[in-house]
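Morning F.,

Quick status update on the modeling queue. The single chain you submitted on Monday has been processed. Sequence for confirmation:
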Amino acid sequence: MFVLTAFFTGHAQAESATSALAALGVPPEDISVFPRRVAHARDIGVRATNKAFVGASAGAVLGSALAAVIGSIAGAGALVVPAFESVMTGSVVAAFAFAGAGGGLGLLVGSIIGARFRELEVRIFADAFRTGGVLVAVRCPPTIMAAATRVLEVRGASLVYKSNAPR
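Structure tokens below.
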């Protein structure tokens, strides 16, 4: 299931779109219309989030890769691995050690940087509410998603956003 969220500047446009969606076969309980003025974005379940998780994962990967390269160039040491009946020495050990340390540091730095980036769609809909429009949210299966998107756009939606439906 997907959720299509559309912003309309007028109530008549939103009503026309909801009628057309119902004619398309979308059940009424899967169509939500939010009022012209919403006091707070949290009134409709929109919450501000950031990119901390994205930054943390990117930082961990890049940090460990970069540190592994630096460690393999600079390092010396030995590690006995009984399970493989082998001894790793020199740059291999240093690469593993530096990769672990660099991954941890990259995780920390990436999450701090990512926390500074807000999600774009939250800002877009917050601006739309400030201008005083009507928001229509539609839960629809992938089979009619393209047709529902066309209905919303033809009926005058100035912004249509597609997302996965929360489980």
